[in-house]
Structures are given as C-alpha cells and as structure tokens.
Design brief:
Helix content is 38%, strand content 21%. It is globular. It folds into 2 domains: 172 residues, 3-Layer(aba) Sandwich (Rossmann fold); 90 residues, Pantoate--beta-alanine Ligase, Chain: A,domain 2, CATH 3.30.1300. The strands form 2 sheets. Strands 1-4-3-2-5-6 form a 6-stranded parallel beta sheet, with helices on both faces. A 3-stranded antiparallel beta sheet has the order 7-8-9, covered by helices on one side. The longest helix has 16 residues. It binds adenosine monophosphate (AMP). Adenosine monophosphate binds next to helix 2 and strand 5.
Length: 282
C-alpha cells in the first residue's frame, strides 16, 4: 500500500490507473479508523479495482472553537488497518496544500445544509462539500463510499453530485455499532467510562422510537418526548432530535411511510450523532 501526501502525485497515480482502465473507489475519512471506516474500505475493495482511502482532518468543516486541533489522529495505526482492509493507497494531503493562503472556492448545497446538524454548525457542510468536491476532482473515483452514520452528509453529497453533474456513483453503507449498540465514531475516544455508558442513550432513544412507531404511534411530538425522557436520564445536552423525510430532510409531524430519525447529543465534550430509518406501514 502506498501513502501519498502530494496532490500532484495522487493525480498522476490516478491517471496511470485510468490508463489501465481500472475503476477507482474512494473512501473519504478524517482518520482514526474504526470498524465503520473499515466496512467502507472492504466494500470498496470488493467492487472497485483501485481503493483510495483519504485521511484528512478537514479544517473547513470545523466551526471556530470546535475540536479541530484535538481531533484524534494516528496515521501509523490507520495505515496498518487500511492496508488490512484492502486499501491500495492512503491519500493524506497536508492542509496547506489543500487550502493554500490564496484559497477562495467553496461549494455549498443550500437548504439541506442548514437543517439538523447544520443548525448549530452553520459552516460545517460547506466544508464537507468543498473537501469532497476537491477529493472527487483529484481522485476521480467511479464510486465513493459513505456511511449511513452521517445520514445528512450522504444526502447532501448526493445532491452536490447531482446538481454539479459529477460522474460519480455514491454507495452508502449501514452504520457499524459496538456490541451494545453505540455507533462507532472517532469521537467516542473523548468519553470517560461513565460517559461511554451514558452514550448508550442515543441508541436506546432511537430503538424506543422505532418500537413505538411499529406499535402504531405516528405523532412525532409524542415520539420525541419519549426520546427526550430517555436522554435526559443521563448527564447530557440535546443539540437536536429530529424526525424528517429521508430525502428532503424536511420535518414531518405525522409519520406515514419512511422517516429518518436523527439526533445529536453532547456527552461531556463529545458531540455524538446517530440515526435510523424507520418505515411505518399504512
Ligand atoms: P469520518 O472519519 O468520521 O469523517 O467518517 C468517514 C466516513 O466513515 C463517513 O462516510 C462516515 O459516515 C463513515 N462512518 C463513520 N462512522 C461510521 C460507522 N459507525 N459506521 C459506518 N460508517 C461510518
């Protein structure tokens, strides 16, 4: 496996792969890899010829005062894990090369970027779409792989690809969880052992919502109330709990058909997100 940090070197590697008619799979990550990331790499390995894993803690998607500087990094371990999972290349550009001082171009998907996680992180998705657009134009993947864990991110990137006529297929894979249900996340590292236990309320609240919907409840305010009760049992702060249409991300008040139930909860210094899609049969 090769580790490339230069954009030019990555571009010539891609050119060479394309000249040999190899399909390219891209798994964009911020590193500190866990089984969630590795599931994406394994799928890329299974369906594309050349697997590129980008590892880049993208400064433009962090709000001022967020955890950009302290975001966990471990390139040595990431390289071993990525290689075992089937990566051919790690692309780890330096921030100064991705965003030189003269940098001034941003991509923003309007509307979808302003709801859910975007409400309290107003510049976040602009950073995500900008870095993905840059990675897509450097790596030129046939397929890019994303996790359902970041449901809103996948919807927004799909919209960017469509609106900008990018010739890239996206594949969104299921959320990988710990044995007790906690969604894997690099930010779980911030949790103390008590907070790690408390963090289970995200999964419990989503599970409870699923059960009550399947039992016939369709009133969103009542479902959210039950979720809040579970979360408020532990030392936590709710950023949002939302029940929305999975494509438009618009709030629904009465559930019929498929909905995305998503939440963001602060446990200590970790802002954790999780979601599920539930279908209510008519
Ligand atoms: P990140 O490094 O957190 O930016 O995530 C990189 C990619 O991995 C994104 O597409 C995420 O949605 C995906 N991902 C993160 N956590 C998980 C998980 N627990 N299960 C599946 N995919 C995940």
């Amino acid at each position: 496996m090769k580790i490339i940090s230069s954009i030019n070197e990555m571009a010539s590697f891609v050119k060479d792969a394309k000249s040999k008619a190899k399909s390219i799979g891209l798994v964009p990550t911020m590193g500190y890899l866990h089984q969630g990331h590795l599931s994406l790499i394994k799928e890329a390995r299974a369906v594309t010829d050349m697997v590129v894993v980008s590892i880049f803690v993208n400064p433009t998607q962090f709000e001022p005062g967020e955890d950009y500087a302290s975001y966990p990094r471990d390139m040595k371990r990431d390289a071993l894990e990525a290689e075992k999972a089937g990566a051919d290349v790690i692309f780890a550009p330096r921030a100064e090369q991705m965003y030189p001082e003269s940098y001034s171009t941003y991509v923003k998907v309007e509307g979808l970027s302003e709801v859910l996680c975007g409400r309290n992180r107003p510049g976040h998705f602009r950073g995500v779409t900008t870095v993905c657009a840059k990675l897509f134009s450097i790596v030129k993947p046939d397929i890019a792989f994303f996790g359902q864990k970041d449901a809103q991110q996948s919807v927004i990137i799909q919209k960017m690809v469509k609106d900008l006529n990018m010739d890239i297929k996206l594949k969104v894979l299921p959320t990988v969880r710990e044995g007790d249900g906690l969604a894997m996340s690099s930010r779980n590292k911030y949790l103390s052992s008590k907070q790690r236990k408390d963090a289970l309320v995200l999964h419990k609240a989503l599970d409870q919502a699923k059960s009550v919907i399947e039992a016939g409840e369709n009133d969103v305010s009542k479902i959210k109330e039950r979720m809040r009760n579970i979360i408020n049992k532990v030392d936590s702060k709710i950023d949002y709990i939302s029940i929305v249409d999975p494509d438009s991300l618009k709030d629904v008040s009465i559930i019929s058909g498929r909905v995305l139930i998503a939440l963001a909860i602060w446990i200590g210094r970790a802002r954790l997100i999780d979601n599920i899609i539930v279908t209510r049969n008519q």
